[in-house]
Design brief:
By secondary structure, the protein is an alpha/beta fold. It has three domains: 207 residues, HUPs (Rossmann fold, 3-Layer(aba) Sandwich); 54 residues, Adenine nucleotide alpha hydrolases-like domains (SH3 type barrels, Roll), CATH 2.30.30.280; 81 residues, Translation factors (Elongation Factor Tu (Ef-tu), domain 3). The protein contains seven helices and 19 strands. Helix 1 links the parallel strand 1 and strand 2. Helix 1 runs parallel beside helix 2. It is globular, with a radius of gyration of 22 Å.
């Protein structure tokens, strides 16, 4: 019998080509669209910059067209309630606490590879695997008896960073058909076989546009201070700032100033010089390890503190239950609480966690 695979279809090129490739390989393919958009949430979106969180009508229409083109079943799965509770509320709460969250890693673990799968099963859809258009690779390591998450062939498009929270069960039924393709080849396939969305632009951010309306009911003005506690000006709400930020401070000091700390308990923004934005140590918790069950001793790795940053040599030290200290060989720019730090050994994802202490300490 053919293996059955459900494909998370977003209406974009990557998920559409993934479905096409799987069908070409002989799988019985079923398309599902994850409904997450809540039009009651006040967001001013930029029409010229697609977002992965926004009105879904066009994306649903495009996904249906691709499903019809491929002659595969297509279902809408409603996870709006779960998405708001697990992802959007988390996103909002973290910003209110003065952190800069990465909602994509939470969405993948709990919604896309979690509730979406559960609801597909509840609706009676039978399948063996779940596939997405992520650029990553999953392999089974017979020696250690563990599923491994690895970087994609196309390093510029690699999305293993966003998948580091997946557990062994989730990885065991996951397929990433684009893992060994370059983006250029994916577009080429879409055009060659005339897949309906071959000319569609990509969505980029969690929210493309002005997210500030979300925070209007929570924003409280407060002081902008230097490292000694001197008040230099006032901010419009700590959720509008992040570590390393220079623009939008609204203060003049004769030399560039950067956000180097956010103190939610004092509703204060701390600014300093560019050199103050560098740090060679961080603390992380909410850990998830993939290639090993847990970290029992210090490990040399390449660590990445945000998706767009470069990897850097570091040593990870277990210092308590579900908490590690990461020491870098060279200072890192704007280590930011709320973001994820990921550990790699060559192309293998060791694991990662949420940064809880990346700003500098201030005694005032």
């Amino acid at each position: 019998m053919k293996k059955r695979v459900i494909v998370g279809m977003s209406g974009g090129i990557d998920s559409s080509v993934s479905a096409f490739l799987l069908k070409e390989k002989g799988y019985e393919v079923i398309g599902v669209f994850m409904k997450i958009w809540n039009d009651q949430i006040p967001i001013n979106l930029k029409k010229d910059k697609p977002s992965c969180y926004g009105p879904e009508e066009k994306d649903i229409e495009d996904a249906k067209k691709v499903a019809e083109f491929l002659n595969i079943p297509f279902y809408l799965i409603d996870v709006r309630k779960e998405y708001k509770e697990k992802v959007f509320d988390y996103f909002l709460d973290e910003y209110i606490k003065g952190k800069t969250p990465n909602p994509c890693v939470i969405c993948n673990r709990f919604i896309k590879f979690g509730y979406l799968i559960e609801k597909a099963v509840q609706s009676g859809i039978k399948f063996d695997y779940f596939a997405t258009g992520h650029y990553a690779i999953v392999e089974y390591d017979k020696k250690n008896g563990r599923y491994l998450l690895k970087k994609a062939l196309d390093r510029k498009k690699d999305q293993s960073y966003f998948l580091y929270l997946l557990n062994q069960k989730q990885l065991s039924f996951s397929l990433f058909p684009l893992g060994k393709y370059r983006k250029e080849k994916v577009r080429e396939i879409a055009k060659k076989y005339k897949i309906p969305v071959s000319e569609k632009s990509e969505s980029q951010d969690f929210i493309s546009g002005d997210r500030f309306p979300i925070f209007e009911n929570y924003a409280q003005k407060g002081p902008i201070i230097d490292k000694k506690g001197n008040v230099l000006g006032y901010h419009k709400g700590i959720m509008f700032y992040t570590i390393g930020q220079r623009k939008g401070l609204g203060i003049s000091f004769g030399k560039p100033l950067y956000v180097i700390g956010i103190l939610p308990e004092k509703n204060s923004i701390v600014v300093g010089e560019k050199k103050d934005c560098y740090k060679d140590t961080l603390i992380a918790k909410n850990l998830n390890f993939i290639s090993v069950e847990k970290l029992e001793k210090p490990m040399e790795v390449k660590a990445k503190i945000r998706y767009a940053s470069k990897e850097s040599k570091a040593v990870v030290y277990p210092i308590g239950k579900d908490i590690v200290e990461v020491k870098f060989s060279s200072p890192q720019w704007a280590v930011t609480p709320g973001q994820s730090v990921i550990f790699y050994k060559k192309d293998i994802v060791i694991g990662g966690g949420i940064i809880i202490n990346g700003d500098r300490h201030f005694s005032m």
